[in-house]
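Run GntR family transcriptional regulator through structure prediction, thanks.
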Amino acid sequence: MGALNNGTSTTFMRLGHEGRTEEVVRRMIEVIELGVFAEGEQLPSESELAQQFGVATVTLREALAVLRQRGLIETRRGRKGGSFIRAPREVSQTALLERLRQMSLMELRDLGDELAAISTATARLAARRATTEHHVRLRHQVEALGNAATRLERRRADAHFHIEIAVASQSVRLTNTQMRLQAEVGELFWIDSADTPDIAAIQRQQRALLDALEAGDVQLAGELAEAKVTRSIKRLINLRLEQLAEEEIDG
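Sure, done. The structure for GntR family transcriptional regulator is below.
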């Protein structure tokens, strides 16, 4: 696996409904875009992957065909053949702003409410349940953020930090939901603007949350997780308000 370990990846690859090609495609896009599978990494065999998703092999093959059409995987023939991950391109600032433009303020608030609820719950549970191994992996993600050279790498490191907290909560459902939300809105948090927080500030927030988890401080862990999401969503709402103001002037 890429940034997350093998045991973790199979946790959030399991689907809620068997036999649905579109669900497999959606989940695979999530794990590829978030960097769970590294660029050039070979996927497990079709039978193994189908078992991990809990779907029939024919369903898995249909999903892989869709992913090939979208350029997210490539299939090589021969003795060393198989399906391999192709790295997603970094989304441009213009494309991110346009994606934000398509969202309403109510939609942003709803996403923020859901993400805050999930992040708070996973942090509280992780404060009770996380092991030393979980703490080590979280610290690795904090350092990965500092070493990230591109927006895509920074986005992935931050997303992995929150996904690892969900994994440490030892709740499969909450981990699946956190991953879906990170894939849905996480990239927008990295739109460049005048009030974009610097990496050092984000690392301080992550370290404070990690310290609370290591100390087993359930209340503080939940409060810090919620505050981080609240700041990020508030920034997006302000950016959206600026867009609306510009549209009103242009109109």
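Residues 6-85 form a domain with the Arc Repressor Mutant, subunit A fold (CATH 1.10.10.10).
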